[in-house]
Design a protein that fits this description.
Number of strands: 20
CATH class of the domain at 343-442: Alpha Beta
CATH architecture of the domain at 343-442: 2-Layer Sandwich
Radius of gyration: 22 Å
Oligomer: single chain
Length: 444
């Protein structure tokens, strides 16, 4: 379905207003486009990193001792707890109470909620990056979009903003059949063109569509953009078939913004290196991981000068490929495993992608929901919610045991519901083994 006049007017009007304000968003949008086509300049990337370090050394107490000519590898790798403990020391004195500063707050779904200050330029760059990467995923601002998430007070949008953005807030704190039916009815009646939301919520919607044999012929969705969680390939493929449109996950977080987007084939993530400098470091040291080797994602945010985020280990893990040519480079994450607490290990302590579980348990007959937990070096638990008469537990265990080890002890527990986190996300994979998650046994 073609865009309505109102949708086209919103796209045109946004950039016209941006032009009146100096055109910063359009300029970065064009830079993002050029970088995707030709790659990011290695020289420009080096200059951005050096400028950020110089700014941090000159205006923050935390980085002052390292000197303005410090190299990136000489600075410490930090995490969210570092930022909590040294929040005031890491703030830039130049941007204290600056006009246009804004606060972004994480959901706290995997820990205590955390607030991040961003300066006005960072906010504008975030807008530009989001518009560009959304367009890559098939959504143009101004089109009717449905956001599916838990709408806590600090992220709720006003009625005026919803009208201006042509968007709908959909609450995912309940994913009962009644709630999902209501969502789908609204998406169909309101002629929603794009759906974005938690990957786990979209997975529940996909299951409902199959279970209830929903007639999808009346929907006009042409883009689905999952956020916050990694979506298993079978879920992505099924959603794409159901709605007849591409499903491309963002790579994002609240403290930095949208940093990348899944490729059309679903086998990698393009990273926006105009705004972010990524390192993939080894699990057991701060040395760079080899290409193709799973490692820790460490982010340097090149645009936030109010609170310099340099070498931030955000808890995610990935493998990468870097292509260089003519003084330019393009970075892709060839595998995105999610948080280390979502990583599983076999009985010999070797990392195993959580997709071993998700790809094998998705759409198994009788399974409505599942949760797989590693509790010890060789101990695991599979929680199942569904029709016990239909579920073939032996077959499920035969599918997943080879990846974990024949000596794996897998306990099966039947439950009535998989609990929802406060954020509205469901944690399908989790590692609760302290020896593996907390860095013992040589693994972090």
């Amino acid at each position: 379905m073609r865009d309505s006049l109102g949708e086209m007017a919103r796209w045109t009007g946004f950039f016209a207003l941006d032009a009146l304000r100096g055109g910063a968003v359009k300029k970065r949008f064009d830079q993002d486009y050029e970088a995707m086509r030709y790659g990011t300049s290695m020289e420009a990337d080096s200059e951005r990193v050096s400028a950020l370090i110089r700014h941090a050394a000159e205006t923050t107490a935390f980085y002052r001792g390292f000197g303005s000519d410090a190299r990136l590898r000489d600075l410490p790798v930090i995490n969210k707890e570092t930022m909590r403990q040294h929040y005031e020391e890491m703030r830039s004195s130049k941007y204290l109470d600056a006009k246009g500063n804004r606060i972004m707050t994480t959901s706290g779904s995997t820990g205590t909620p955390f607030s991040m200050i961003q300066d006005r330029n960072k906010a504008l760059m975030n807008i530009a990056d989001s518009i560009f990467l959304s367009a890559v995923g098939g959504y143009r601002i101004g089109e009717k979009v449905a956001f599916i998430r838990v709408w806590v007070d600090n992220v709720k949008k006003s009625r005026i903003r919803l009208i201006a953005e042509n968007s709908i807030m959909m609450e995912s704190s309940s994913l009962s059949d009644e709630a999902i039916a209501e969502m789908l009815d609204c998406i169909q009646k309101e002629k929603v063109k794009c759906i974005t939301g938690y990957a786990s919520a979209l997975g529940e919607i996909s299951r409902y569509i199959d279970r209830k044999t929903v007639d999808m012929s009346r929907f006009c969705v042409h883009a689905i953009l999952p956020i916050s969680e990694t979506m298993p390939d079978p879920v992505r493929e099924r959603l794409s078939a159901q709605f007849g449109c591409p499903v491309r996950s963002y790579y994002s977080n609240e403290e930095n913004g949208i940093m990348g987007i899944e490729s059309a084939s679903g086998n990698s993530y393009y990273i926006n290196s105009e705004s972010y400098h990524f390192e993939i470091l080894k699990f057991d040291s701060d040395e760079p991981a080899e290409e193709g080797e799973p490692g820790r994602i460490v982010i340097t945010d090149l645009t936030n000068y109010a609170f310099p985020i340099i070498r931030y280990d955000n808890g995610d893990t990935a493998a990468y490929h870097r292509h260089e040519a003519n003084g330019r480079f393009r970075l892709t994450l060839t595998e995105l495993y999610g948080r280390r607490s979502d990583m599983l290990y076999d009985t010999k302590g070797r990392a195993v992608t959580p997709f071993v579980i998700t790809n094998n348990l998705w759409d198994v007959d009788g399974v409505k929901q599942y949760r797989f937990v590693q509790k010890g070096l060789r101990e695991y638990e599979l929680m199942l919610n569904g029709d016990r008469d239909k579920m073939d537990v032996r077959n499920m265990l035969e599918r997943i045991r080879p990846a974990l080890g024949e000596d794996a002890v897998i306990d099966v527990t039947f439950v009535d519901e998989i609990p929802v986190l406060a954020s509205g996300k469901r944690k399908y994979i989790e590692n609760l083994c302290p020896e593996l998650v907390n860095g013992k046994s040589g693994i972090r």
